[in-house]
Amino acid sequence: MQKSTLHEKIISTAGDLFYTNGYNSTGINEIINKCGIAKATLYSHFKSKEDICIAYLTQRHEEFLDDLKQYVSRRKKGKNQLLAIFDYLTDLYREDTFFGCWALKTLGELSAKQKRIFSTIQKHKKELLLYLGDVVLENIHNVSKAEVEKVSGGIYMLYDSAITEAYLHKNAWPIYLAKTIAPSFFSNLDMKS
């Protein structure tokens, strides 16, 4: 197996374990066994479990953001694009492998000493918030910076709550509720069409 392919396999295998079993509950030996590699091979790719986790979170975030951007771009301008994140979340929820937000699940397990993982999650969440701000700018006429922050921040907060609560309750009602609340952040603004 080529080095880059093996590198990706380690990230993917460890990521699946972190997402389903939890970061703290997943040991290096379990990752090694699932990958079918030697410990030295794993450490030739990653210095630590923390490094694997950061690679997993980064890969997952990049895939999510790319998929979300494509999903939103296929929607009609205006309200449809502003609410698309909730439709995207509904699709995620329907997958058999839905266990909530990978970043928030990992965040909930961190100690105060795990600052690198914390910073990675924080960076990813900021990137999502900035992207939602771009969606607002693309879909609302003459919107002020304060209005962009209010709308994008509101959608972001509803999304993060909905993904967590849908997993907690094993039901999609939090997603549907969030989608019905979201327009209150932009209903009085001039939509592009």
From TrEMBL:
Segments of the chain annotated as binding DNA: 27-46
InterPro entries: Homeodomain-like_sf, HTH-type_Tx_Regulator, HTH_TetR
Domain HTH tetR-type: 4-64
The keyword DNA-binding belongs to this UniProt entry's keyword annotation: yes
Keyword Zinc: no
Keywords: DNA-binding
GO molecular-function terms, A-Z: DNA binding
PROSITE patterns noted in UniProt: HTH_TETR_2
PANTHER family, A to Z: ACREF/ENVCD OPERON REPRESSOR-RELATED, ACREF_ENVCD OPERON REPRESSOR-RELATED
Name listed for the protein in its UniProt record: Regulatory TetR family protein
Organism ancestry: Bacteria, Pseudomonadati, Bacteroidota, Flavobacteriia, Flavobacteriales
